[in-house]
Write a structure and sequence with these properties.
globular; mainly alpha; Arp2/3 complex 21 kDa subunit ARPC3; cell shape
């Protein structure tokens, strides 16, 4: 129960930071996507189901407050969380390379998915303009923030992990 409450609080804090503080720190009206970082992190740290659940609630919050199509972001974030869950078996928490690569790929998929749903369906075909002006700067800004935020998410998750006794740890190895 404690874990679920902390995850809900983390979703709310990341949403509030993304929609307030980082909006004022935006560069050329581009801000980092903290909810993608959180969704991806829980996907590869905890697996497909938890990544999908965190992604759904992150996307639903974004849909309710900023979305034009209810459910679009929830579906996109859910897929991203689920896809990151496939990397749970090769995840090693102390190494930043895999999380950085997966969060970057998730941000790229999110940008391309948003383009496909919101712009391409409205017959706006200037993909390279959208890529240069929105997708790429948001990707770079998200990568920069990931370097700091991922460590905090990982440490919070480790604090919530139940402590195993020495005999159980030896049996696992």
């Amino acid at each position: 129960m404690k874990r679920k409450i902390v995850i809900v609080l983390m979703i709310l804090v990341c949403f509030l930071l993304q929609s307030t503080v980082f909006q004022s720190l935006s560069i050329a009206s581009i801000s980092p996507n903290l909810l993608i970082i959180l969704t991806s992190a829980y996907g590869f740290m905890k697996g497909k189901k938890e990544g999908m659940a965190v992604g759904f609630f992150c996307g639903l919050l974004e849909d309710i407050f900023f979305g034009r199509l209810l459910g679009m972001h929830a579906l996109l974030y859910s897929y991203i969380g689920y896809a990151n869950g496939y990397f749970n078996q090769i995840f090693y928490g102390e190494d930043i390379k895999l999380p950085l690569a997966l969060i970057s790929a998730s941000e790229l998929v999110y940008g391309l998915g948003t383009y496909g749903i919101m712009f391409l369906m409205r017959s706006r075909f200037d993909f390279f303009y959208y890529f240069r002006r929105i997708i790429l700067p948001e990707l770079l800004y998200t990568i920069l923030v990931t370097l700091f935020l991922y460590r905090a998410i990982y440490m919070i998750d480790q604090k919530l992990e139940p402590k195993r006794d020495l005999k159980e740890r030896i049996d696992i190895v």
